[in-house]
User: Which sequence fits this backbone?
């Protein structure tokens, strides 16, 4: 019996040594962010076949690629890359499984293209074109964001918009005589012609844009193509964070980098006029929140957290439109642009901003001191007249 156990142990040790020698490892190190401007195909990691528990096929992974192209630079992801990102990227990139009703119910597996865009360095795309073998269609990034509860609190669809790679337990390429190709863009809020089959590439079209409107008129536009040239000398970084122990949430201490709001307003005709500002996200959040000129230029005061209350101090730091946090572009979870308001609580950190709305406060809306005194005197006479009249009666 002891000899039998010894033989088993020797076999196991031999198998383990083979794995070490051949380099067949589950370590996956190819998760670094790829910079825009590079053109490369990611090296293929070793593939294992202990897949997810759902219906991803266990047969050989198709040797196919999907390309992401921006300004002539191309980043290519193989199907193996995509599978291994999902397996080893610590939950950042995941495969998604749900059932769709398309000529009957089908079990599908795919991935959210937003995460591949970020891996390709696309942190700020607004419009992109999905190219198929025989046609192409443009899609707006907000269509993907509106469908994903990881990016928006109340998604407008039950399921995320994904690129399908497997269909009813088999690779997509094997479905319907291959008419869908290897990659198929599917989403409940996409128009019929935006559900693109046979995808071979995705093209970056337009950057995420922030409009500055003054009393309803667009006066300036900010995006990453013009930011460095249109705004100079007003880029700033500082550390900011707090935690509300009573509420159980806060803003982790991090380096916030972006443009001061006051400097951005110089590119409008606001001048020295008094105003209120609203920072509006792509889902409309922020429309009903207004900030004063004093808050924007001097910081927020009087806001407290915890019990007994502790005031959040801005320590002289101005509100900024942040685009980089801890040296990393924000991406779509909080950005590409997010309002940072030192001295204010978490509800003021509005992300996904598409408009900064400026409303001028007309001087006639303010009642000068002498008018207040006049109204007070008239009121006194009116009350006195009523009292005298009542006595006569």
Assistant:
């Amino acid at each position: 019996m002891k000899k039998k156990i010894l033989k088993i142990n020797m076999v196991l040790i031999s198998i383990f040594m083979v794995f070490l020698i051949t380099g067949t490892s589950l370590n996956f190190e190819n998760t670094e962010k790829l910079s825009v401007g590079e053109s490369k195909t990611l090296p293929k990691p070793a593939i294992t076949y202990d897949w997810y528990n759902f219906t991803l096929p266990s047969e050989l992974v198709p040797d196919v690629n999907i390309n992401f192209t921006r300004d002539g630079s191309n980043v290519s992801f193989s199907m193996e890359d995509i599978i291994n990102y999902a397996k080893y990227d610590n939950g950042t990139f995941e495969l998604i499984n749900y059932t769709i009703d398309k000529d009957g119910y089908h079990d599908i597996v795919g991935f959210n293209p937003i995460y591949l865009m970020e891996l390709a360095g696309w942190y700020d795309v607004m419009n992109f074109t999905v190219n198929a073998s025989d046609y192409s269609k443009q899609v707006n990034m907000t269509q993907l964001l509106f469908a994903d509860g990881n990016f928006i609190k109340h998604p407008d669809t039950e399921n995320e918009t994904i690129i399908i790679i497997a269909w009813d337990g088999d690779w997509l390429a094997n479905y319907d005589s291959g008419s869908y190709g290897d990659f198929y863009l599917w989403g409940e809020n996409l128009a019929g012609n935006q559900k693109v089959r046979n995808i071979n590439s995705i093209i970056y079209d337009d950057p995420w844009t922030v409009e500055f409107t003054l009393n309803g008129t667009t006066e300036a536009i900010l995006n990453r193509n013009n930011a460095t040239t249109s705004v100079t000398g007003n880029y700033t970084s500082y550390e900011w964070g707090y935690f509300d122990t009573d509420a159980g949430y806060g803003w982790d201490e991090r380096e916030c980098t972006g443009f001061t709001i006051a400097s951005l307003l110089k590119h409008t005709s606001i001048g020295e006029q008094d105003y209120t500002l609203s920072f509006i996200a792509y889902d409309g959040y922020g429309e009903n929140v207004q900030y004063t000129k004093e808050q924007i230029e001097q910081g927020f005061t009087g806001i407290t957290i915890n019990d007994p209350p502790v005031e959040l101090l801005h320590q002289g730091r101005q509100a900024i439109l942040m685009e980089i946090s801890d040296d990393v572009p924000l991406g779509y979870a909080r950005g590409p642009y997010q309002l940072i308001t030192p001295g204010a609580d978490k509800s003021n950190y509005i992300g996904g901003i598409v408009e900064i709305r400026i409303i001028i406060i007309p001087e006639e809306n303010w009642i000068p001191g002498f008018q207040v005194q006049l109204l007070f005197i008239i009121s006194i006479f009116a009350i006195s007249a009523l009292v005298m009249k009542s006595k006569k009666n």
Remarks:
- The helical segments are 2-22, 79-88, 113-119, 141-146, 227-230, 261-265, 293-298, 369-392.
- The CA atoms of residues 200 and 345 lie 45 Å apart.
- DSSP finds eight helices and 23 strands in the chain.
